[in-house]
């Protein structure tokens, strides 16, 4: 499996404070792990730099997720529930004193709970299969409305997940477009997410770390001549951690969660779909490196 590594250079600082690089890491979406720096002897001169390493590899799998919502009255006529609910609640709001509006019935109180079934999602399932999704790689979850996120009267949801082997950007785009085009009528594609992965995330992470070390050393070497110094051995390293998923890539894979990371549905935990992001797994590592240096003798 081919891998590419490259280094980025976000910040360089003298001394022992790396506040600037930490702020930059936060802006870039990096998860910074707290690290307790060990004090150095007062007579040790140091240069502190931040090295960033990036490693990528062609994706072996793509985890594609679709969050399908319905505000429609599934099984009870063709009138969209959203229109009826809005009209009914507007009338109640206009005729109810403000102090009593908290007692107005919710949408689910008026119409009953909305629940999607796998049969309701059949148009979406058939469309993504026609677009190239393997039938045995598709799983569907349906359930009642998620009142904890939206409150009473939440829409019904269905979660469709596809584990696509050997993905290409063209194949993924075709499947997403098929799902979007087929969610019609009372169905709506609320969210689409794609996560690219490889089986061996450990090697990719090691490659990104090595690239971060190399970047830090190169920046220290480039900076030292400006103060008439030579760079010595590293005396301290702080690991800022790996970046959060960016552009539809995540390695290691996003863990399953009881509550979705990117949406209101349990299990929806893939990064938002980006139709331009390459089909590759990507790891970004940031390290703060402290090197000894010696001033040139006059």
Please summarize what this structure is.
With 298 residues, the protein is an alpha+beta fold. It has helices spanning 19-27, 81-95, 107-111, 122-130, 147-150, 169-182, 201-223; strands at 4-14, 46-58, 61-70, 138-143, 156-165, 187-197, 229-242, 280-295.
For this entry, give a set of tags.
single chain; 298 residues; alpha+beta; Translation Initiation Factor IF3; Alpha-Beta Plaits; 4-stranded antiparallel beta sheet; 7 helices; 27% helix; elongated
Query: What is the quaternary state of this protein?
Result: single chain
Radius of gyration: 26 Å
Taking pLDDT < 50 over at least 5 consecutive residues as the criterion, the unreliable ranges are 7-35, 73-82, 145-153, 256-264
Name of the level-1 CATH class of the largest domain: Alpha Beta
Major β-sheet profile:
4 strands, antiparallel
**How many structural domains are formed by the residues?**
2
What fraction of the residues are assigned to beta strands by DSSP? 25-35%
Q: In the CATH hierarchy, what is the architecture of the largest domain at level 2?
A: 2-Layer Sandwich
Structural class: alpha+beta
Look at the structure and give the mean pLDDT: 74
- CATH topology title of the largest domain: Alpha-Beta Plaits
Distance between the termini: 52 Å
Percent of residues in helices: 25-40%
């Amino acid at each position: 499996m081919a891998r590419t590594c490259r280094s980025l250079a976000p910040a360089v600082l003298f001394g022992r404070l790396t506040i600037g690089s930490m702020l930059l890491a936060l802006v870039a979406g990096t998860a910074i792990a707290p690290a307790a720096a060990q004090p150095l002897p007062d007579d040790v001169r140091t240069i502190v730099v931040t090295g960033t390493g990036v490693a990528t590899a062609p994706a072996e799998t793509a985890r594609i997720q679709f969050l399908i919502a319905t505000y429609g009255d599934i099984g009870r006529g063709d009138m969209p529930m959203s229109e009826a609910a809005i009209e009914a609640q507007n009338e109640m709001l206009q005729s109810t004193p403000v102090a009593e509006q908290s007692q107005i019935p919710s949408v689910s109180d008026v119409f009953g709970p909305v629940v999607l079934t796998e049969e309701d999602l059949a148009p979406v399932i058939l469309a993504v299969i026609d677009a190239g999704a393997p039938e045995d790689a598709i799983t569907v979850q349906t359930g009642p409305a998620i009142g904890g996120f939206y409150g009473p009267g939440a829409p019904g949801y269905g979660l469709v997940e596809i584990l696509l082997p050997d993905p290409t950007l063209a194949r993924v785009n075709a499947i997403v477009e098929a799902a979007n085009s087929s969610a019609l009528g009372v169905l709506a594609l609320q969210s689409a997410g794609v996560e690219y992965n490889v089986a061996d995330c450990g090697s990719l992470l090691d490659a990104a770390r090595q690239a971060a070390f190399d970047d830090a050393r190169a920046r220290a070497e480039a900076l030292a001549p400006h103060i008439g110094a030579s760079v010595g051995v590293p005396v301290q390293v702080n690991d800022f951690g790996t970046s959060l998923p960016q552009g539809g890539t995540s390695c290691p894979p996003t863990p399953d969660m009881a509550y979705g990371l990117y949406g209101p549905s349990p299990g929806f935990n893939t990064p938002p779909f980006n139709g331009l992001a390459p089909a590759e797994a990507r790891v970004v590592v940031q390290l703060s490196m402290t090197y000894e240096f010696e001033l040139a003798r006059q």
